[in-house]
Amino acid sequence: MRPRVSTETQQPRASRRRAPIVITIGVVLLLVIAFFVFAGIYADIMWFDQLGFLNVLTTEWIARIVLFLIGFVAMALPVWASIMIAYRTRPVYAKLNSQLDRYQEVFEPLRRLAMYGIPAVLGIFAGVSTAARWDVALTWLNRTPFGEVDPQFGLDVGFFVFELPFYRSVVGFASAAVLLSALLVIATNYLYGAIRISGREIVIAKAARIQIALTAGLYLLLQGVSIWLDQYATVTESGGLITGAAYTEVHATIPGRQILAAIAVGVAILFLITAVIGRWRLPLVGTALLVVAALLIGSLYPWVVQRFQVVPSQLQLESEYIQRNVDLTRQAYDVDDIEEIDYEAKTDTEPGALRADAETTASIRLMDPAVIARSFRQLEQYRQYYQFPNDLDVDRYQLDGGTQDTIVAIRDVDLEGLGDASTWYNSHIVYTHGYGLVAAAGNQRSADGQPVFLQSGIPSTGALGDFQPRVYFGENSPAYSIVGGPEGSKPVELDYPAGSNSTEQTQTTFDGDGGPKLDNAFTKLVYALKFQSEQIFLSDAVNDESQILYDRDPIERVSKVAPYLTLDSDTYPSVVDGRIVWIVDGYTLTDQFPYSNKVSMSEAIADSEGVAPALAFDEINYIRNSVKATVDAYDGTVKLYAWDAEDPILQTWQKIFPSTLSPMSEMSGELMSHVRYPEDLFKVQRAVLGRYHVDQAGAFYSREDAWTTPKDPTQPQASTLLQPPYYLTMQMPGQDAPSYSLYSTFIPEARGDQSRNVLRGYLAVDSDAGTEAGVKAEGYGKLRLLSLPEDDNVPGPGQVQNTFNSDPTVGRELNILKQGQSDVINGNLLTLPVGGGLLYVQPVYVQSTGNTSYPLLQKVLVAFGDQIAFQDTLDQALNVLFGGDSGAAAGDNTVDPGESPTEPTDPGAEPTDPGTEPTEPSQSTELQQLLNRAKQALADKQQALADGDWTAYGEADAELAEIISELVVLAGDEGSSTGGSDGSTGGTNGGSNG
Q1: 923 pLDDT above the threshold of 80
Q2: Cα(214)–Cα(223) distance, rounded to whole angstroms?
Q3: Fewer CB in 10 Å around end: N or C, the chain?
Q4: Residues 537, 525: contact at Cβ < 8 Å?
């Protein structure tokens, strides 16, 4: 018989056999994970190196690694030393109770692991936290003075922006390390009997007493430093009335914190004395005193001062500090040199009123970029694998000796349009890029209401000249594409369809330097892992000349190479020096500018064009458009230009990342002609100016003249979205000639649910940087604010829109347009300071309900004062509004409105609905002109009667009689006519205030 082997013997042997296997599997898993991590790091190195910004990546990595090590050592070493000292100075023959004996028995086998493991774990967490603050550390090391001092402490603003956050971070970190060390010291000493609780008595060994007292003293000393630094933070903290130290903070909070800091240092000294003499009474009494003082001096006393001294005489006591807040807020948001103009807006129309504003009138934009995107798609998309964005961009070009406002968009590739053909090869090898920039005149329309394209078609042709039309880097480019090939090889990338036959195509091969090369098996493997696609490694289409293009969104590319910038939410394409480039605006921000009011940037830039997501750096109180960036649409080259070289924050980052920024002098004249004043900056400034347009403390305190941005009147009534600002070429009062500008309006700030939608302010900024290479135009960035008198009820956008919507004549015209299942779309409601008043212009589009239909501009609504007109063209509407002759021609004055609108003969397109045909305008135009003349004659007659001028009275009466005769004749003609409508009516100011 075989001897029986016991199970106890078999189990250890099996365990011994399995152990190497488990270890091997673990090692392999660690190696796989390490390689994945390495692949990501190596891919980042290749991406930054190809783009020429490797120093940005390495600087950040080195800073993070160094700070991680500092944080690890600064936390782990004190904690380890504290535990080690407590253990080595433990009583050798301590009398322990049975419970502590059991604790020691459990803990002792793990003691060595705990003594090193606990500090290591805490050190790792501290290192990660410290590494995340790499930007604070680097800006402190490279700080640049602002050259301005705060009014409370007399310190340079740079102290609050760069130094104070760093010092508070260091003190906070040190306090955390000391506190954790103290807790672990107490726990260790208790576990080994150095601290014993005997009834009501706590017995502490001498070594433990010294260590605990020294640690407590160090902690309180750090608290004293922290409280002392907190006094400086009062000038950047938001209070109930203003941001910054007000009367209570200056006379109670700041002195109180100074006293508390001194008490904390005194208590720390008492703990140090206790370490020597061994008596705990004094430091414990001191600690209690510190707590009581914190309650009395830190909380109660400021409350008493605020409640019983400030509140009864708030304006008198707070005026000095409110004025600080007003002055420094205006300075921090760069609105302190705004030109304020009192504007007595006319509300009466008269012939020839627009003669002095002829250039502005000719440039009025009728094409709404938020509406005509569908027109671009239907007219210019051509194939299902192309796309246009939902919101188009506004730009301008120098054409025929003048400036032409344009609506622009990129024809980008759309892989979702491939449908069943969306294979890996097609998606990443063949369909790699978009093609062409499409531009339409902003102030023109075709006879049937279509956009007038200045640049269009495939291949791209038009007034913008020859340029590289291929778009490998766009807002909607694929996640990655593999491009390039050996010289002389057959092209495989689809360039563009060559004809009406869908099988006719032209191919191309990318010949730029746009991404890392896949010229060896290792890099192929790295990117196969990065994008989790084995095809990158296995495909024959990937050759030694192949490049992989990824991170192609312009904003994403700029944010990676300039991590210190907050970027504008909207980038736009322009043709510059024969290339399509994306222009991106970058901001430097802080929330530590003394006395400057804090604004939520995400809330400030949200409007009907889009609700911005919460930003990483959201609450700000200082902003500068410090950088203009460009991204080449063909090869992805990123260039950063120092636009505001005087900004101390930008100067600091230039020290951190030298050679990454180019001076503005390197910007070409053509690039200068396309950069503009950024929209997000303007939105933030208008949010600030709603209250800070006043520059005196009394007016600011009373809020008697507080303004707000009106809601977008074209949105549904329940919508709370704000009206966005608009780019227009116009001449503001105070300007010698029209310029490309960005504007917005103000209405009175709502009181509860009540809001009067009357115009109170009109804000515009000169957005034209000029055409001289490397030199800003003299007026660029000049803010002008038109202030309207409070007793002048000029209707605001909401009132004007309500008047348009409720006017019976306009309603009848719109009902005609809606016949045949057509939708009427109101375009953006523009406001222009012309004719001595404010002119409102709104294009009206008609769109049939078919899938392939698109909006056609059919009518234009205009308003001036309480008069409105509704005609087929802007030129006609202005003439009707201003008594038969506005004195200026609009950009659409060459349109023949008598032609029936028809959609292009695109395959699959639906015929235009007959309900979209315009009505005959001739009789309505003449009738409105006579009515306007009659109104003016009546006004002249009444004025002459009031003045006692009987000669003028007789002339006005004769004029009125002649007009009535002409009206009678016209009424007879109109009665026999089958078409036409008056198309105009006189509104009133008493419309809805919504």
Answers
A1: no
A2: 14
A3: N
A4: yes
